Amino acid sequence: MTPANFQQLSNFIWSVADLLRGPCRPPQYERVMLPMTVLRRFDCVLGTTKKAVLDEYEKYKHKDSRVEYGNTLIDDRFDRHPENRFDYLLANPPFGVDWKAEQKVINRWPSFRGYSGKLPRVNDGALLFLIHMIAKFQPFEEGKRLSKN
Question: Which domain holds residue 56?
Answer without folding.
Answer: 3-60
